[in-house]
Specification:
By secondary structure, this protein is an alpha/beta fold. About 30% of the residues lie in helices and about 25% in strands. It binds pyridoxal-5'-phosphate. InterPro entries: Ala_racemase/Decarboxylase_C (IPR009006), DAP_deCOOHase_LysA (IPR002986), De-COase2_N (IPR022644), De-COase2_pyr-phos_BS (IPR022653), Orn/DAP/Arg_de-COase (IPR000183), PLP-binding_barrel (IPR029066).
Length: about 425
């Protein structure tokens, strides 16, 4: 059973009509389902167990780093994959076990590394020699050893949108395979570094299993080679990237994904790490919005809504599709009209959908932008001096505001006038 479905003609999240929440908190707002997140986590973990794979699922916080989301997943058993000091602090604050935290990202600063070392995290995924040198220096100064994974760039085409593809030789991410041996040699002479793991992450929203298979096979073969050469590796990190259904994609099912992992793990004795982000939260959230005006242009109908690209940038940034669903269930035989669904921001890019067939919508009608749980609220800005969309978490028939809408005063007072202007 989906966490978002019509009951008695009203779109519900778990046991609550979204319209009731809209009346209480106002629009636009993000709404997440606890059940959908926990189900996604459990299905991921069950699929691995069924394929005989043992490992830790480190939720990639960047998909949705609300404290309540991190904690919901941590309670289900998840660790965290973080890419900044801020995310590391969020993970620790939410109670994630430091021994389940992986620190990824191409540009960790020494000050950020120090926070990770102090917390005693599981591993730093290192992507360049200068980064390895910096980590060694910080660890030496602190008198600790830094656990390192080399993030490999397997030169595999993830066949996803160019802006979220990370595993090709021309991408900024990872170490190309021929250079890894040199990294291993460097690591031997650098103090306070322990190379324990190899990692990949080839991109996001993958809808085809074959790039995973290729990347995992290359990773596993390199792992064997380095281990045979005497490098004491203990972990292998398969990254994230598993796609979800936004429209009519058919992402690999979990058993196929787990099968790709278990094939790569044949003959390997290693702990596994996974870094899913989108898969755990993407379909667990919606963005609820109100129609402000219906504007009939010369040959187009525009629905002008109160959510905009500052709330959910995915359509403008990645040409992404989100299903748009009226909260009030339309009649089964209602006729559909193609509409352009746009926000109020002064940019033509502030468009959520073009020529989308929708039932008759009037001003005041509420709509849900589906699959907005990942890379939604975390990418929001206050462009056009718009207030942030609050975030709501639902569990059964309860809901809580887990991030509130700030008021205009708070937003504007973030600016500080210099002395010469304030006088
Ligand atoms: C973004 C990212 C992830 C999560 O990707 P999803 O597509 O959301 O699963 C995992 N690992 C790393 C290193 C990332 O940068």
């Amino acid at each position: 059973m989906s966490a978002f479905e019509y009951r008695h003609g009203q779109l519900h999240v778990e046991d609550l009509p979204l319209e009731n929440i809209a009346q209480e908190v106002g629009t636009p707002f993000f709404c997440y389902s606890t059940q959908a997140m926990v189900n996604a986590y459990n299905s991921f973990s069950d699929a691995l167990a069924k394929a005989g794979v043992k490992g830790t699922i480190c939720y990639a916080l960047k998909a949705n780093s609300n404290q309540s989301v991190i904690q919901t997943l941590a309670k289900a058993g998840a660790g965290a994959d973080v890419v900044s000091e801020g995310e590391l602090r969020r993970a620790l604050e939410a109670g994630v076990d430091p021994k389940k935290i992986v620190f990824a990202g191409v540009g960790k600063k020494p000050s950020e590394m120090a926070v990770g070392l102090k917390a005693g995290i599981l591993q730093f995924n290192v992507e360049s020699l200068p980064e390895l040198e910096a980590l060694s220096a910080v660890a030496q100064k602190m008198g600790v050893t830094a656990p390192v994974a080399f993030r490999i760039n397997p030169d595999v085409d993830a066949k996803t949108h160019a802006k979220i593809s990370t595993g090709k030789a021309e991408n900024k991410f990872g170490i190309d395979i021929p250079s890894v041996r040199n990294f291993v040699e460097q690591a031997k002479v650098l103090p306070n570094i322990a190379v324990e793991s190899l990692a990949v992450h080839i991109g996001s929203q993958l809808t085809d299993a074959s790039p995973f298979k290729d990347a995992f096979a290359r990773l596993a073969s390199l792992y064997k080679e380095l281990q045979n050469a005497g490098l004491p590796l203990k972990r292998i990190d398969f990254g994230g990237g598993l796609g979800i259904q936004y429209k009519d994609e058919t992402p690999p099912d979990l058993s196929e994904y787990a099968q790709a992992v278990s094939e790569a793990m044949q003959g390997l004795d290693a702990e596994c790490i996974f870094e899913p982000g989108r898969f755990l939260v993407g379909n667990a959230g919606v963005l609820v919005t109100e129609t402000i005006y219906v504007k009939d242009g010369t040959n187009r109908r525009f629905l002008i809504i109160d959510a905009a690209m500052n709330d959910l940038i995915r359509p403008s940034l990645y040409d992404a599709w989100h299903d748009i669903t009226p909260l009030k269930q339309p009649d089964a035989n209602t006729s559909l009209t193609p509409c352009d669904i746009v926000g109020p921001i002064c940019e033509s890019g502030d468009t959520f959908a073009t020529q989308r067939p929708l039932p008759e919508i009037a001003a005041g009608d509420l709509l849900a932008m589906e699959s907005a749980g990942a890379y939604g609220a975390v990418m929001a800005s206050s462009y056009n001096t718009r207030l942030n969309a609050p975030e709501i978490l639902v569990k059964g028939d309860q809901y809580a505001i887990v991030r509130k809408r700030v008021d205009y005063d708070t937003l504007i007072k973030q600016d500080i006038l210099p002395e010469w202007l304030s006088k």
